[in-house]
Design brief:
The chain is built from no helices and 21 strands. The termini are far apart. β5 and β6 form a beta hairpin.
């Protein structure tokens, strides 16, 4: 008998936080959505469609140590050959705005909004959408687009197949190098006009569209640009295997 049921199931728990939270979520196959609020608590929910939670179904392992919270959602091993279309799992988080998040899913999308701090996101197969974030962002997905809007000090985005679209707001800095990379898709980066960087752009099959004055260095090629933006600074690298690159001022 398959460990599923015709109705939804839900697990939830609230964690009290005294300082800045450090949240880690690990799952093999679920969507993750994180939003923020002005409460010193993390509220976590796991919602399922046609899965039960508990014996024979999904298992939720969770642990809190001070302000660190770890949640792992495990799927039943013998249930991987079923029809996935009607089975869905969502991990929903509300948490304080500032801290650290590590969100990893093997197959599912990740949404993060209104967060400030260190962000480490990975999906084996799924899109990633970040809105109104602030801080250091490292995000990757094997297959899916990445869109990000916010103020960034560090930025590292990589997808195997999908577009990358970033709007970096005023106050963004290259405290460390920025790198945007996709195996197949367009890359669009909008940055403040005063941002300084050593720019390196490359596309194997596509064009490069610049809306900012870059002092080029070396040989000029149609699919490659190297130069300095506003006198230069930390490296800003954009790579796409099959797609165009758009760099413009906000």
């Amino acid at each position: 008998m398959l460990p599923c049921c015709p109705h939804a199931d839900e697990w939830s728990k609230t964690y009290n936080i005294s300082g800045k939270p450090d949240l880690r979520i690990e799952t093999s196959d679920a969507n993750i959505r994180v939003t923020t609020w002005d409460q010193n608590t993390i509220e976590a929910k796991v919602e399922t469609s046609r899965y039960k939670i508990g014996e024979g179904g999904l298992r939720v392992d969770e642990h809190q140590n001070g302000d660190s919270v770890e949640i792992e959602v495990h799927f039943p091993h013998h249930n991987f050959n079923i029809e996935w279309g009607s089975h869905k799992v969502d991990i929903l988080i509300q948490m304080p705005r500032e801290g650290r998040v590590t969100l990893h899913t093997g197959d599912g999308k990740i949404d993060l909004a209104g967060f400030k701090g260190d962000m480490d996101l990975h999906s084996g197969d799924g899109s990633e959408n970040l809105e109104g974030v602030d801080g250091k962002l490292h995000a990757s997905t094997g297959d899916g687009h990445i869109t990000a809007h916010g103020r960034f000090d560090e930025l590292e985005l990589k997808t195997g197949d999908g577009h990358v679209e970033v709007r970096a707001t005023q106050g963004s800095t290259l405290a460390a190098s920025w790198r945007l990379e996709t195996g197949d898709g367009n890359v669009s980066l909008e940055i403040p006009s005063e941002l300084s960087a050593d720019v390196s752009l490359h596309t194997s099959d596509g064009h490069i569209d610049l809306d900012m004055p870059i002092v080029t260095e070396g040989k000029i090629r149609e699919n490659e640009v190297h130069g300095k933006l506003n006198g230069g600074g930390s490296p800003l690298t954009i790579r796409t295997g099959d797609g165009s690159i758009h760099l413009r001022k906000g």
